[in-house]
Amino acid sequence: DTFLESCTKQTKTLIEFPKRKPAPPRPKVKKVLLLGSGGTSIGQAGEFDYSGAQAIKALKEEGLEVVLMNPNIASVQTNVDDKSSSKADHVFFLPVTPDFVEQIIAKEKPDGIVISMGGQTALNCAVEMYQAGTFEKHNVQVLGTPVSVVMDTEDRELFNNKLIEIDEKCAESYTADNIEDAIEHSKKIGFPLMIRSAYALGGLGSGICNDVEHLRAMGTQALSTSPQILVEKSMLGWKEVEYEVVRDAEDNCITVCNMENFDPLGIHTGDSIVMAPSQTLSNAEYHMLRDTAVKVVRHLGIIGECNIQYALHPESMEYCII
To answer: What's the pLDDT tens digit per position in 270-293?
Structure first.
């Protein structure tokens, strides 16, 4: 990025590249537990079976012993036949819950654990175990994105606070853990408004509310699967754009691709079509959102892959991170 910027500005002096902090030491692990994708559902669909299978392949290439937990016998990553070129050394068809995961940790004694390749169930399980001190108790190192960073991205209030720290744009919103608080917040924002569930990768429980009764019904449903909802200003009709970003422990950061929903904000991605790469963004819009994605991912401290979603005004450069 620094080099390209210098070319654009036709800099005549020597290019000064930013100085990086020393990379953290390489984890000294020999045996790794990978939390698998489980049953296919919103927030942990087939892409997590694929990412988990690729993670197993990468871990095996590093000469590590791999233990997989995944109750879904129909997934690719659980294949243990001789035709599989890279398969887990041990597969446990058990639910990805704190109790079962701790039992496997006690039995197999892994040095490290991979939590970010299994979708929402794996992330929720890891957060619960982190808060209970289970990983520390068994001396298991979390590889990739730290659990504290997962909590910053999954908790709607923490995420908004992190964005404010770097002056990034997010929609006016308020968090609530009960329906009455959500209704109070709706008086500040007005209808229609958007509600979003915390700890829900696929947008489960999110949607547009047109009045108080609608909010009460949708909010009750969302809070039945999530401990928190975000009551947010509606940006109905804005473009919905996503970037896939990868960052490593040495702060190398790339945007793998960007995507654009065929339908505007207000229609769930699962009910729409996603185009990759985007088809209607200008060069300025593309690079504005790309720079923002890299900035946010670096500030949060993601190590591995992540996805950042935007609402982009169709007739101006105004955007919000959603």
So the answer is: 788 999 999 999 999 999 999 999
Element (H, E) at 107: helix 98-108
- The closest alpha carbon to 85, from 133, 131, 53, belongs to 53
Give the tens place of pLDDT for each residue, 177-198. Answer: 999 999 999 999 899 988 888 7
Distance from C-alpha of 268 to C-alpha of 263, rounded to nearest angstrom:
9
Question: Both tokens of residue 128?
Answer: 């619960």
Eight-class DSSP state of 72: -
Of the candidates 161, 208, 156, 163, the one whose C-alpha atom is nearest the C-alpha of residue 186 is: 208
Instruction: Determine the angle formed by the axes of helices 156-165 and 283-300, rounding to 10 degrees.
Output: 110
Residue carrying the six token digits 């819009």: 285
> Which 3 state secondary structure label does DSSP give 195?
strand
* Structure tokens that stand for 249 in this block: 């422990």
Amino acid (one-letter) located at 129: M
Q: Which of 321, 262, 263 is nearest to 292 (CA)?
A: 321
pLDDT in tens, 206-256: 788 899 999 999 999 888 888 888 898 888 889 999 999 999 998 899 999
C-alpha 132/C-alpha 180 separation (Å) is: 30
In the structure encoding, which two tokens stand for residue 118, read together? Answer: 């299994």
Parallel, antiparallel or unpaired: strands 173-176 and 229-233: antiparallel
Instruction: Provide the residue type at 4 as one letter.
Output: L
